[in-house]
């Protein structure tokens, strides 16, 4: 818009100088015509400027290295045929360790699009934010601002990386007797012992073997596995560590093995029982603006299985 105003100012001064030096009717006609462009541009464009807006779309989730685009589309908030010039805006793009500003210009015609490639070279949460837009008049002498306050995020998943030294990764778990003797999907048959609840006696088998036997409910141990994630010092280490964490998580959940996860030595311990919980936890680790913290769980005095995830090598303790 500054360029249009400069051109208009030069044209206006030039036409006035021409009329002053050559006082013919045509020179004054040109000067008046150029002068009247100011109210004409404003009156002819004001309704069009007031009816324009933008919307944008982008994928919520992308794999690291995949292609994705942030798309801005011009919309018309009111039905009218009045034109406008261009829509301008400052697009703020922020991530964990970077921030940038894109100066956008797109045609004000309805359905016009502007596309920006999403950087998926590293994992993380990227936030796109537009606070205000500026719609210019047809000639570009005026601009009308409006608040849009639009924000959207895209979650870049770290690519799964198989860790080295995968020693004795579990493919199942040992079931333990459930205290209280309540219902359980898994059960074990054993001889009756003094103090066992009467309701657990399996009367048919007891009559068949002439010996009191009970059906003892079994459950898997809770919070028995811990994945200890070391902190990273840069984007490349973060991609590697979280990629290895994702591989381990996929492996454990494939075998229906819930586990606990802890970030660093002073982080809280959270439980992961399914893929949705893992995605939420991973999102929190990557979102630098997150205010809430993952819910903590009570932990045993000693985990039966601990896996350390860092940028070097992993060990099972």
- Strand-residue proportion: 25-35%
What name does the CATH topology of the largest domain carry? Immunoglobulin-like
Instruction: Report, as a whole number of angstroms, the end-to-end distance.
Output: 66 Å
How would you write the strand order of the largest sheet?
2-8-7-4-5
Helix content: 25-40%
* Domains, number: 4
Question: What's the main sheet like?
Answer: 5 strands, mixed
Look at the structure and give the CATH class of the largest domain: Mainly Beta
Structural class: alpha+beta
Stretches where pLDDT is under 50 for at least 5 consecutive residues are none
CATH architecture of the largest domain: Sandwich
Quaternary structure annotation = single chain
The count of DSSP E runs of length 2 or more, i.e. the number of strands, is 15
Element order, helices and strands? HHHEEEEEEEEEEHEEHEEHE
Question: If you compute it from the alpha carbons, what radius of gyration comes out, rounded to the nearest whole angstrom?
Answer: 34 Å
- Shape verdict: elongated
**Mean residue pLDDT:** 81
- Total count of helical runs of at least 4 residues: 6
């Amino acid at each position: 818009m500054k360029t249009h105003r400069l051109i208009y100012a030069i044209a206006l001064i030039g036409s006035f100088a021409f009329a002053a030096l050559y006082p013919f009717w045509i020179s004054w006609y040109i000067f008046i015509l150029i002068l009247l462009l100011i109210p004409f541009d404003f009156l002819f464009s004001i309704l069009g400027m007031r009816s324009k807006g933008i919307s944008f779309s982008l994928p919520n989730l992308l794999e690291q290295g995949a292609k994705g685009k942030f798309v801005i589309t011009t919309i018309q908030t009111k039905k009218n045929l009045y034109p406008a010039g261009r829509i301008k805006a400052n697009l703020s793009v922020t991530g964990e360790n970077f921030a940038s500003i894109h100066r956008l210009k797109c045609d004000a015609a309805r359905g016009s699009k502007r596309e920006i490639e999403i950087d998926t070279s590293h994992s993380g949460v990227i936030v796109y934010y537009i606070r205000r837009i500026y719609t210019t008049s047809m000639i570009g002498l005026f601009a009308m601002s409006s608040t849009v306050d639009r924000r959207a995020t895209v979650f870049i998943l770290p690519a799964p990386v198989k860790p080295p030294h995968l020693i004795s990764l579990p493919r199942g778990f040992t079931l333990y007797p459930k205290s209280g003797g309540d219902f359980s999907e898994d059960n074990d048959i054993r001889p009756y012992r003094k103090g066992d609840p009467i309701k657990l006696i399996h009367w048919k088998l007891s009559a068949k073997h002439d010996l009191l036997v009970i059906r003892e409910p079994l459950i898997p141990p809770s919070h028995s596995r811990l994945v200890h994630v070391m902190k990273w010092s840069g984007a490349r280490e973060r991609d590697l560590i979280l990629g290895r964490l994702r591989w381990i998580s996929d492996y454990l959940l494939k075998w229906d093995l819930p586990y606990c996860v802890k970030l660093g030595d002073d982080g809280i311990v959270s439980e992961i029982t399914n893929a949705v919980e893992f995605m939420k936890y991973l999102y929190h680790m990557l979102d630098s603006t997150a205010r809430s913290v993952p819910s903590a769980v009570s932990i045993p005095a000693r985990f039966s299985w601990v896996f350390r995830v860092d940028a070097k090598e992993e060990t099972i303790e």
